[in-house]
Design a protein that fits this description.
mainly beta; single chain; 5-stranded antiparallel sheet; 5 strands; 6% helix; 109 residues; 1 helix
Length: 109
């Protein structure tokens, strides 16, 4: 099964900007592991799919447990025209994502 928008996921990820002359391998702005990736020592993070940027949440909802994807997110589905402390406006983002597991969040009735 694939995660729903309201689900929680346990994932490993590494977010970079497109490679440039300054950063030939891309500038790493966020990561949950160090290279080289080693599942035996890396600890995944838990996130709610709905809390992610649009491009990331859309891709994660199509992944299955155990999948490893490289996701390219255009600025319109990322952080848009807003500049943050680490991500310039209009940035295309690249995420290396490994979906460990997902689960449904039970809502109080």
């Amino acid at each position: 099964a694939t995660p729903l928008y309201t689900d929680s996921v346990s994932i490993h990820y590494r977010g970079t900007l497109l490679p440039s002359t300054s950063y030939p391998k891309g500038y790493v702005f966020d990561t949950t592991y160090s290279l080289p990736f080693d599942a035996t020592i890396s600890r995944p993070t838990t996130l709610v799919v709905s809390s992610l940027i649009t491009g990331f949440s859309t891709a994660v909802q199509k992944m299955h447990q155990g999948d490893h994807w490289i996701i390219y997110i255009p600025y319109q589905l990322g952080y848009g025209t807003t500049t943050s402390s680490t991500i310039p406006a209009y940035s295309t983002l690249i995420f290396d994502v490994r979906l460990v597991k997902s689960w449904r969040v039970k809502l109080a009735s």
